[in-house]
Amino acid sequence: MNIIVQILPYVILPFILAIPLGLYMSKLVDGEKNFMTKVISPFENKVYKWLKINQKEMNWKKYLSSVLSLSVMSFIVLFLILKFQDLLPMNSNHFTGMSWTLAFNTAISFVTNTDWQSYSGETTLSNFSQIAGLTVQNFVSAAVGIAVLFALIRGLKRSSVNVIGNFWKDFIRIQLYVLIPLSLVTSVILIATGVPQTFSGSKTVDLVQPVAVNDNGVPITNAKINVKTKAVTVNGKKINNVSIITKEELPLYAQASQVAIKQLGSNGGGVLGTNSAHPYENPSPLSNFIEMTAMMLIPAALCFTFGFSIKRRREGIAIFITMTILLTFGLVVSVLMEQKGFSLAHIGNLNMEGKEIRNGVTISSIWSVFATATGTGSVNASLDSFSAFAGMIFMILIQLGEVAFGGVGSGLYGMLGFVILTVFIASLMVGRTPTYLGKKIGPKEMRMAVLACLATPLAILLGSGIAATLKSTLGSLTNSGAHGFSELLYAFSSAGGNNGSSFSGFNGNTEILNILLGLVMIIGRFLPIFAVLVIAGSMAKQKVSAETSGTLSTSNITFIVLLILVILIIGVLSFFPALSLGPIADFLTRR
Amino acid sequence: MINVIKDSIKALIVATLLTIIYTLVVTMIGQAFFNKQANGSILTIHNRSIGSKLIAQPFTEKKYLWGRNMIIDTNLFKTSKGQTILYASASNLSQTSTQLIRQVRNRAAIIKKLNPGENNVPIDLVTTSGSGLDPEISPQAAFYQAKRIARARDISIKKVNKIIKNNIVEKTYGIFGENRVNVLEVNIALDRISK
Q: Where's it found, cell-wise (chain A) (predicted)?
């Protein structure tokens, strides 16, 4: 009961806001006017004019080639920025360019909306790379995901046409009407709660008390420190091999503007290495609440957008309920398991390891479920230090294909892939022609739906399988045994699911892992996009067949149960063996 | 084909410009209306900055309130003269890891020795946070150290407890987050009444 009271506020606000936002976005799908049109459309039209965009609608091939071409361009530009940031402006810390493989990995990661980070921003990236490189891609990759969903929705609702919308128009409008206004509001609120926003660059300040630190990074307690003679004594005994530190680094960037879009666009790529666990990205319980609302908002709203736009609200609500059930399952199990934690006699429960006091155990667990369910992948605690079982829930939420809301756009189009699969299975069981929203599901649509659903598991298993055979991978692990394997499996799940969170004890910044993880991200992103756009194209061409009493309902409870079963069965069949070597073994072997 | 590439370059330029304008606007609003927060919530005494309210500093002397355990990275940041600038990170160790358990036991033993007569060591003092830079501890962990601080400074426990009490931040609106105490602010307040 207590748990439910703690969880509710974090779920209620985004879900309430999701309905009006969903309606608002459905007008963008349909090209209708909304209350922002007056303000934005003059500027929007100027952009089109300047771009000399052909505003004609596209068929699926053209739409896909535009998506791919923009993504390739984005990759090239971001790669060059990261590689040659030392030659670019606003590099007050004089960081060198990234290595080839790290720049490759990072560029792919941000272009595919994954935002896996094999580096720490505060020790690697200039302000220019953060803003003109990463923040740009936070917007671009989110807009691409939503645009592909828009195309699919159009394909499902239209009949007997070839075209599914104009990608460039969708892309520009999603930014102007949705992402930028929401980010503006969110980032200003975040600054008010304490998230820095400055171009002045990092600062160093004097510590109130000088501190002596040994080689392992452990501060020497109760030590007398003479800063001038550099002598450190404890109870009169001299201590050697320690360094005396008198200054502290304060990593100041344009944090708020990037944190806002990283949460709203289910990117998750923060400015700083420890992401939203860092007090500068998430300073208070209030900022934590805002950031959690931001990450759930658009994915939840898109369910309603879908319902409004196809003029069958019940279908949108059915999907929303399905996602909510999966999310609730994750929330309850992981919160309970984490509260149980691991107790050490005479000391206490170690579940505070890796968590911040202002958030505490329960809220850190809720955040982590949100971040893995939505594909945001930002963290406000160390996922590596979560109990084995809670960590497994995060992993499963990613491995199911991130369909419990999922990434912006990608979550819902992934879910629609599962819906088509379920319709097909359910219809054949009762001997009916499989149709969804009055469109027949033929062999072509089925092949594509299977591709969309299996691309992610395939990429994850292949990638982690290859990495597990490499001896060098061992050097990347912080923990040993089953938990070490969990670190590896999590890394590839995160890459394949385009999530971006990590068990950060895992060091992904080696040449081979940078490349391998990068390839997994590409498969996990673009195979489903391809499949979805093919489906959109072929659905748009079909005529809508009339609904009869024999048509399978896709919005009742039976269907929701079936859909959840299909999602779970595919997930469990794909990942149970791997999970039993990692988190399950970790759970069973704990003392 | 060439048209598509041209279009994508143009679209990317638009996206980049929009992002830069957005970032500039947010920065201007932040600097104008929330100047202190936008610049890192830095605390100053007599115009000298002594750290940020949001970023933990390690305290190891008996007369100061101690915060979360910190794992300090001495290689990340250096001054131009090669001196280490402090920065910290998470342990990323599993709760059941023998390494973590050993470290926690060691830390607990040290803290217990310096706070004789107290009960079990509060868990937040022996665990490392997710950022490694958590600036706060629970009120219990703060009161636990009151006797030691009072003795080291030769002031009454009451005074120390009062300062801690004044610095307790309660859950936001009674539902969000946890009750907590900012370590640096308590220590500044302590230094103000007795050096």
A: Cell membrane
